[in-house]
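Figure 6 in text form: structure in, sequence out.
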């Protein structure tokens, strides 16, 4: 036993001596700086690029043999400027000696710091890395007897990447990466962070990532357990910045050979939004998605910014709706958008090269039901929207309070709508808006207007025949049993001619236009009282239409009585009577259209007609006319 221990100690001593000798002798015998030119020539032959090693090459001999380099630059491709494609402040790599004796290659920690990579693509598609790997003639064959390779770890700090794609620049700065030991087929831990600046998207912030990674021996399949990604930053112009707080977690299974990935236990957090589900991805270049998402609450208003008319907004293009193909189901407990709230929302999303379709869409909506579909056609030059929606049993007052901050209409409403428009920008969306709408409201009221009181005002105004402004607001209300109306939208203007409102006391018709582009209304409503016999204040107005002019702002319109129209309506009976009298005079009578013995003789028709036309011109009948019918002159 003592002899064995003696030999073991002797072996350890010999190894220690060898390390000491190596540490002393290698730097003395071999100066790697003498091989800079050979290294440069080799790189030039293989890549066609010029490699410059500005700093000293230094040996590392304990506990592993390796080299340390500093101030390295690799030249750019011809035609891409003089700026180096790659520069490295410091790089260190080493190989441990003892594992080599066991047929294994164990590389020490690989260290890179102050790395700068400049990538660029021109408009013709040429990149500054196209030539790499194609200039040299050396081929690499798989050596099945090669020793197993183990990397003790990777440490990258202060790495920066600039990616110029024609005129768009993406910058990744302060990239850092740390891993545990890496060996084929064995899991290892990684964590990292970086800062990003996407000038075109006005997005900037800091990201972090991590997880436990295991890859197959051939490197084609990668599993990441407990993958985590976070981003905190800002998006938008300086005067309207929006804070972004994003987090993603999942277990990922990636097959690089099949170009697929599966994310299970997927969770996405954006601000206070949390989405859970699963997602399958195929074809990373143009992703095909298969997903099943659900979330308790989604407020889209938190992620939409108001547009400033003075600032040109970027146009949407058809390519914005071709980001992926495939689709899946989306369930939302509560959805809020444009001030509206829907619950128990479900929709199926399908996307392809021709656009995106959401159908069917179902939800609980303000006490009623909502169902419909949305299609975005991206097959042409501009993204075109077609939307069909049907609402049943909706509380109109609550809905309008959310949409227009008003409760002017109450009742249980059914609404059908089909519209089309151009989604390129806000201007085109309103100016090209077209379609059809239909509304039916039961057992409701128009709040802020009492039509009966307006008609009373109209009766008083008939004596002066001056236009009268109607009193609105307060507790005024016009109740009805049913209201129906439909309209056609063209170029952002809704026109309707079939308003029909009914109640026990009145009927009301109407027609006019609502300009959705300018947010104005120009409408004439004609209420007609019925069943007002015995009501002294309304005597004489039963069955008489009293036109109301509704105009001005769509959200705060003015209401006025059209006196001219009211006078015409109130005098209708007299006008009809006068019409009969005129007709009788034309036929030669005395004002009554009669027949038999009292009918006018033919010879009387001429004088009767002359008298009528003279009266119309302002004259009076002269009893002393001459026998020839000519008027006397005085």
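Output sequence:
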């Amino acid at each position: 036993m003592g002899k064995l221990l003696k030999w073991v100690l002797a072996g350890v001593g010999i190894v220690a001596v060898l390390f000491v000798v190596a540490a002393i002798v290698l730097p003395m015998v071999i100066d790697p700086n003498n091989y800079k030119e050979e290294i440069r020539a080799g790189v030039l032959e293989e890549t066609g690029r010029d490699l410059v090693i500005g700093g000293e090459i230094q040996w590392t001999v304990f506990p592993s043999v390796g080299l340390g380099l500093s101030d390295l630059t690799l030249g750019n491709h011809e035609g891409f400027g003089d700026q180096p494609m790659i520069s490295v402040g410091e790089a260190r790599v080493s190989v441990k000696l003892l594992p080599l004796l066991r047929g294994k290659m164990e590389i020490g920690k690989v260290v890179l710091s102050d790395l700068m990579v400049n990538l660029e693509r021109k408009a013709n598609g040429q990149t500054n890395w196209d030539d790499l790997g194609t200039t040299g003639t050396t081929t690499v064959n798989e050596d099945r007897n090669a020793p197993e390779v183990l990397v003790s770890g990777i440490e990258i700090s202060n790495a920066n990447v600039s990616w110029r794609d024609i005129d768009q620049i993406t910058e990744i700065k302060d990239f850092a990466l740390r891993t545990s030991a890496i060996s084929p087929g064995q899991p290892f831990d990684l964590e990292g962070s970086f800062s990003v600046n996407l000038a075109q998207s006005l997005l900037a912030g800091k990201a972090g990532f991590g997880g436990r990674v295991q890859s197959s021996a051939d490197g084609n399949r990668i599993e990441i357990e407990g993958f985590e990604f976070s981003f905190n930053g800002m998006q938008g112009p300086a005067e309207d910045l929006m804070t972004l707080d994003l987090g993603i977690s999942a277990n990922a299974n990636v097959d690089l050979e099949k170009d697929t990935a599966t994310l299970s236990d997927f969770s996405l957090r954006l601000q206070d939004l949390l989405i859970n589900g699963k997602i399958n991805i195929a074809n990373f270049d143009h992703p095909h998605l298969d997903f099943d998402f659900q979330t308790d609450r989604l407020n889209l208003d938190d992620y939409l910014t108001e547009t400033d008319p003075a600032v040109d907004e970027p146009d949407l293009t058809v390519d914005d709706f071709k980001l992926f193909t495939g689709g899946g189901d989306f369930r939302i407990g509560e959805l809020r958008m444009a001030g509206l709230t829907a619950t128990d929302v479900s929709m199926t999303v399908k996307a392809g090269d021709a656009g995106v379709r959401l159908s069917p869409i179902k939800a609980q909506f303000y006490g009623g039901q909502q169902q419909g579909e949305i299609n975005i056609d991206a097959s042409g030059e501009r993204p075109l929207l077609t939307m069909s929606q049907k609402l049943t049993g909706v509380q109109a007052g609550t809905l309008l309070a959310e949409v227009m901050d008003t409760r002017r209409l109450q009742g249980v409403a059914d609404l059908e709508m089909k519209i089309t428009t151009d989604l390129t920008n806000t201007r085109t969306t309103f100016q090209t808006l077209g379609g059809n709408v239909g509304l039916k409201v039961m057992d409701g009221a128009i709040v802020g207007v009492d039509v009966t009181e307006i008609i009373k005002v109209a009766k008083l105004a008939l004596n002066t025949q001056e236009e009268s402004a109607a009193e609105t607001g307060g507790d005024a209300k016009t109740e009805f049993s049913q209201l129906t109306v439909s309209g056609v939208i063209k170029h952002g203007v809704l026109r309707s001619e079939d308003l029909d409102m009914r109640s026990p006391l009145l009927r009301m018709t109407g027609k006019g236009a609502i300009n959705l582009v300018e947010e104005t209304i120009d409408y004439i409503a004609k209420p007609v009282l019925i069943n007002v016999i015995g009501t002294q204040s309304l005597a004489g107005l039963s069955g008489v239409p009293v036109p109301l002019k509704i105009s001005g702002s769509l959200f705060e319109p003015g209401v006025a009585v059209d006196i001219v129209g009211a006078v015409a309506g109130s005098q209708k009976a007299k006008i009809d009577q006068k019409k009969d009298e005129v007709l009788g005079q034309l036929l030669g009578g005395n004002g009554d259209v009669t027949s038999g013995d009292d009918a006018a003789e033919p010879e009387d028709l001429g004088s009767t007609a002359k008298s009528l036309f003279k009266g119309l011109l302002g004259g009076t009948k002269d009893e002393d006319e001459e026998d020839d019918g000519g008027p006397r002159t005085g």
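Caption detail: The longest strand covers residues 472-490.
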